[in-house]
Write a structure and sequence with these properties.
Blueprint lengths: L4 E5 L5 E5 L5 H29 L3 H28 L20 H29 L3 H29 L5 E10 L5 E6 L14 E2 L8
Antiparallel strand pairs: 1-2, 3-4, 3-5
Length: 215
């Protein structure tokens, strides 16, 4: 069976070849990505709840931020799919595996970091190549940018996992700004307070710039 490609002019007026979207693998890649990022967002919300149960509200906020990013990715993928389908309704069947792991905070952080890296290096880069080969450069770019986001997520989650294991979430080699997420009190030091000097909220509510922690 031969793949049929069509010709269109790009913004530069140059001819480019593209495959019929409904018959393309790019369509399936978008569908699988949409399902995957939605599932990732849900899994991360579960982990965030685990962090709250252990009074690690800063970790919870960091994970919720990544989960929020996942839903933004889902929206981008959904819009790309609808655009290529030309507003026509279509049910797309997909088959994909999904990782289920322990909900213990320390192992969840490590597992999630590994999943983010794996998706970036093995799934989204592969999907980007498929989109490029089939003539969908804009979708190729979306996959590449999501892969970059995943790598950044992996680094953040790995750092949180290491700090959690070392019990050094609220310690720094250098002075940094610690801020109470409840009342906004700030203090510059190498270690956060046990209870906020102003509102008495516990350490778990302290927030800080993760990039300023030198480990």
């Amino acid at each position: 069976m031969f793949n049929i490609f069509f010709i269109r002019n790009n913004k530069k007026g140059e001819k480019e070849y593209f495959m019929n979207f409904k018959e393309s693998k790019t369509k399936e890649c978008l569908a699988r990505t949409f399902a995957g990022v939605c599932q990732d967002g849900a899994r991360l919300q579960f982990i965030a709840k685990s962090a709250e149960k252990e009074n690690m509200f800063f970790i919870s906020l960091q994970i919720k931020e990544i989960a929020k990013n996942k839903m933004a990715h889902a929206s981008i993928i959904y819009d790309a799919m609808v655009k290529e389908l030309s507003q026509q309704k279509e049910n797309i069947n997909i088959e994909a595996g999904y990782p289920f792991e322990s909900q213990k905070l320390n192992s969840s952080l490590k597992d999630s970091a590994e999943i983010e890296e794996y998706e970036a290096k093995n799934i989204y880069t592969h999907f980007a190549k498929i989109a490029k080969d089939e003539g969908y450069e804009k979708i190729e770019k979306i996959f590449k940018l999501i892969a970059i986001s995943n790598i950044n997520n992996s680094k953040k989650l790995n750092k949180l996992a290491i700090m959690f294991d070392n019990k050094s979430i609220y310690k720094s080699n250098e002075k940094i700004i610690w801020e109470c997420s409840n009342c906004g009190y700030t203090e510059e030091s190498k270690q956060a307070w046990d209870y906020c000097p102003l509102c008495s909220y516990p350490k778990g509510y302290v927030k800080f710039d993760l990039n300023n922690i030198n480990k």
